[in-house]
Amino acid sequence: MAPFSVLKIGRIIPLVVGLILAYHVVMQVEGGSAATSVRLTEEEELELERQLNILNKPPIKTMHTRRGVIYDCIEFYKQPAFDHPLLKNHTILKKDEATPTTTLHTTLTSEIEGCPEGTVPIRRTTKEDLIRAKYLSAPSNAPGDHEYRAGISLQIQGERFFGTHGIANVWQPKVNPDQFTAAETAIRAGHIEEANEIRFGWMVYPGLYGDNLTSMFGYWTGDGSHQTGCYNTLCPGFVQVDPKYPIDMYFVDISVTGGTQYALRLEISMERETGHWWLTLEEKIKIGYWPSNLFKLLGLGADYIYWGGRVKSGKDGITPVMASGNLPDRWPDTTGYYAELQYKKNDDTMMIPSNEVQFIVDCKESYNALWDNEHTILHFGGPGGGNCA
């Protein structure tokens, strides 16, 4: 089926930021279609092994997808989230504990059979994952490597938002190894430099996943991406709850231009009883949540919402395809879209954004966004290929 601060890739895996590249052990790190030679000392090799032992918990069960991704079923309270110092004594409400997912009629297809009761699927971190994170965090003097968006934002003076809902169609754009392309829903509280922020959507990101598949992603930060936050479960934070659908799973079904559209129905909303921000897919699949302990500002609600596309150019400055690669033309089967957009007010009523929305198109030479107020559909996308810097 369905700017904020530029992310500092070095924050993806804080445990390995201190590694320094040297010239002993040589590894080929795949980043999509290209490989990067990285040289490591024996000490760095040992440090990587130590970090892998911390990140990869002893599994109750291991599952392999057809495309080579490995998921381990980890006991609920031993998942990476609970390594966070603020979550040491964290408890989850009984009604929200991980239990086998009932069969739902949904185009969200998982290639894993699901974890036993009391365990959750966590993608296994590899040595190559850690090295890619280090490689991508290295300083660069290249003129490119910028992020651009095409979509709409919602910000109403004096208003707080406690949730957002929408349906996004799913594409598989081609990208170079040092680019990414995504469609996202994002909420934010506070000034951009110290923002509490949550993002969720789909993306093609060889530097993060090591492949060119379209995968779900979640990102959080409690301080504008300075010292906290990461993607998915690559650092303590997001609590995985569903035993079958992990937050970083890849999509099996992809939309076709002028043909079948596969879309993802998603909702991010605050649970008033706890202050946790829950991710729910297809109305009934509660993937997991970002605990209230991670945020100082989002406890009062969000003051900013963004819907649309986001891309990162390569170090040569060239931008990738966004969504289908076509500029929006109000036909939902030819470009990216977010449909049935809604936001939740303080009294938990769902509202439809209308004339309050503001367009954000950072690179009009390559991308665009159109808002159909009558049908509450955002159309976005573009071919990329230019240098927008």
UniProtKB/TrEMBL annotation:
Gene3D superfamilies: Outer-capsid protein sigma 3, large lobe
Domain (Neprosin PEP catalytic): residue spans on this chain: 140-389
Family matches, as InterPro entries: Glutamic_endopeptidase, Neprosin, Neprosin_propep
Pfam families: Neprosin (PF03080), Neprosin_AP (PF14365)
PANTHER family: PROTEIN, PUTATIVE (DUF239)-RELATED, PROTEIN, PUTATIVE (DUF239)-RELATED-RELATED
Name listed for the protein in its UniProt record: Neprosin PEP catalytic domain-containing protein
Species for this entry: Papaver nudicaule (Iceland poppy)
Top-level taxonomy: Eukaryota, Viridiplantae, Streptophyta, Embryophyta, Tracheophyta
